[in-house]
Specification:
Blueprint (H helix, E strand, L loop, with lengths): L2 E5 L4 H12 L3 E6 L6 H5 L3 E4 L9 H4 L4 E4 L12 H19 L5 E4 L26 H19 L4 E5 L2 E3 L6 H10 L11 E6 H14 L5 E3 L4 E3 H12 L10 H14 L11 H6 L4 E2 L4 H7 L6 H15 L4
Parallel strand pairs: 1-2, 1-4, 2-3, 4-5, 5-6, 6-9, 7-8, 8-11
Antiparallel strand pairs: 8-10
Helix pairs in contact: 1-7, 4-5, 8-12
């Protein structure tokens, strides 16, 4: 039995990592901003410490004496510009990894993302690929900095760290725009999905398991892409509509239309407040982009696997329908 420190334990991926670690009999220490609001963590026996990764002084005590670190905390919003993007994704990562080195913690896993590759234009790169900008979103930009200017240099200096790179992560407990879109679909309020935009879709349980496999089997200094199967948004939401027996989106604007709309919204936001989904950044991210990465190395070296999207969506939709009172 090991003792692990987890950042982002109240979040989507981090929360699932914690559940799986506890389920395997490990002890978990979590840094949370408001321990009194983290009832689920307390209920399953997580040792909680008040703090924030942007405040390095709050890290030392809870990280003392652990066998490994999972750094899964991150700022993830599209269409929103916020100073927290740099503070959390860049400065927070630097704080966690510096403390890991100071305390000589023997292993760590950092959650990066295939978004550091940006739009791969249909290519499916492996871990050796590097993209140097410009970036489509603040999320992409700040995660790129954390990956290439913080985590990789620390590994080069000998920090016993592994990087994992998920793609699009979905499943029960999601609070991202993907969850919003699925709920809108179930309510009959999703008339549009973009054409040709595609991601690697991985269920949160598989993604969290990939993190633990990296901790247990990964080689320090190595990076592992832990993505799922590649599908377009149109395909995924048409499948979700069939599974849930609701109306599928009818409109599928192409990349040119999405980019032209982004230009129009750049003008419109001078005169009105736009919702995140209509922000120019949000539209550019969905304008025929492909956020791809090959998981062959993780499959080969870690034993990673990701379930088919139909299986994962069926479970996710069952959860969302119950939450809507239709289950």
């Amino acid at each position: 039995m090991a003792k692990y420190f987890v950042t982002g334990a109240t979040g989507f991926i981090g929360g699932e990592i914690v559940k799986q670690l506890i389920g395997r009999g490990h002890k978990v220490v979590a840094l949370v901003r408001s321990p009194e609001k983290a009832g689920m963590l307390k209920a399953i026996g997580v040792e909680m410490h008040a703090g924030d990764i942007t405040d390095r002084d709050t890290l030392r005590a809870p990280m003392q004496g652990v066998d490994g670190v999972f750094h899964a905390a991150g700022w993830y919003k599209v269409g929103v510009h916020d100073p927290l993007a740099d503070q959390v994704n860049v400065d927070g990562t630097r704080n966690v990894l510096k403390t890991m080195r100071t305390l000589e913690i023997p292993r760590g896993v950092y959650t990066s993302t295939v978004a550091v590759f940006s739009d791969t234009r249909g290519a499916v790169p492996d871990e050796s690929f590097r993209y140097d900008g410009p970036h489509l979103s603040e999320y992409d930009r700040t995660k790129w900095i954390a990956h290439h200017r913080v985590a990789v240099p620390k590994m080069d200096e000998g920090l016993p760290l592994m990087i994992v790179m998920p793609g699009l992560v979905y499943g029960p407990g999601d609070t991202s725009g993907m969850h919003t879109a699925l709920v809108d679909l179930l309510r009959g309020r999703l008339p549009v999905t973009p054409a040709r935009t595609a991601f690697c879709w991985a269920h949160v349980e598989d993604t969290a398991r990939g993190h633990i496999q990296a901790m247990e089997k990964g080689t320090p200094g190595q990076t592992y892409i832990i993505t799922g199967p590649r599908h377009t948004f149109e395909y995924a939401f048409d499948m979700a509509a069939r599974l849930a027996k609701v109306r599928a989106p009818l409109l599928h604007p192409g990349p040119r239309t999405m980019r032209a709309t982004a230009v129009l919204m750049s003008l419109a936001r001078r005169f009105t407040t736009l919702p995140p989904g209509l922000q120019p950044e949000s539209l550019r991210v969905l304008a025929g982009t492909t956020y791809f990465g090959s998981n062959e190395k993780a499959v080969r070296e870690l034993g990673f696997s990701a379930r088919p999207i139909e299986e994962g969506l069926a479970q996710t939709l069952e959860h969302e329908l119950r939450a809507l009172g239709r289950g």
